[in-house]
Amino acid sequence: MTVLQITDLDVHYGLGRRRRQALKGASLAVEPGEVLGLIGETGSGKSTLARAVLGLVPASGGRIVIDGEDVSGYRARQWRSLRRRGVVQYVFQDPLRSLDPDLPIVESLIEPLLIQGIAREEAIAKARTFLPKVRLDEELLDRLPAQLSGGQRQRVAVARALITEPKLVILDEPVSALDAANRVGVLEILKDLRATGIALVFISHDLGSVAGIADRVAVLYQGELVEVGTAREVVATPRHPYTRLLISSAPTLRTASAGRAEREALRALLHA
């Protein structure tokens, strides 16, 4: 079953003369175990699409189906129920936005499970099993977020999103705030998640960070999806001028500070 199906999605902000269209006629499908890279510059509509899928902004038109469930007309209570069931999860660009700075890591990890009614002891045991999946040591559970590196915090945020065993995880610029080494580490973890059957939507302004792990890439420009294809197709034979601009300016292809694994992944796509 398709995990996410978006059909002719429109989103508007504001009223009257200030009303503007942030997303126009977007259509996408994401399958189980698939990594979809959603690429575009700031203001292109990437985060708006994610927020619409999460029920955080209302759709003006179109249809959203998550794991076979048509959520297009959901009210606030129905959205809360869906999110509490953990069907869809979200990873922020800055993990400090999702991790309480005053709580040890273990408390942040088990919170989604406690909301679902799972006993505390069982939740803690599950949290311990998830740390190795994101390449973290169990000793970090008792630390505060400020005592972890940026890469460690982001891996905790990924573990927190996975712990409810969701069908869909949306990652909003999950590596843009990390240095090259930590960026590659998080990308490798996300690549490993393919085998679990979880569908991932990886949002980024940087094609280079996405192309190495994405099965398909969707390009947003001024609120419209201008190109969708396999990562190899989009990188090797871009059809839209904006996509070609993104490729020519991809920092992972042209900067010495970029992670070698990212550069090699893109070059492999280009020459495959």
TrEMBL record:
InterPro entries: AAA+_ATPase (IPR003593), ABC_transp_ATP-bind (IPR050319), ABC_transporter-like_ATP-bd (IPR003439), ABC_transporter-like_CS (IPR017871), Oligopep_ABC_C (IPR013563), P-loop_NTPase (IPR027417). One of its GO terms (molecular function) is ATP binding. Keywords: ATP-binding, Nucleotide-binding, Transport. PROSITE patterns: ABC_TRANSPORTER_1 (PS00211), ABC_TRANSPORTER_2 (PS50893). Residues 4-247 form the ABC transporter domain. Pfam families: ABC_tran (PF00005), oligo_HPY (PF08352). The keyword Ligase does not apply. GO terms for biological process: peptide transport; transmembrane transport. The keyword Nuclease does not apply. Belongs to the ABC transporter superfamily. This is ABC transporter domain-containing protein. It comes from Actinokineospora globicatena.
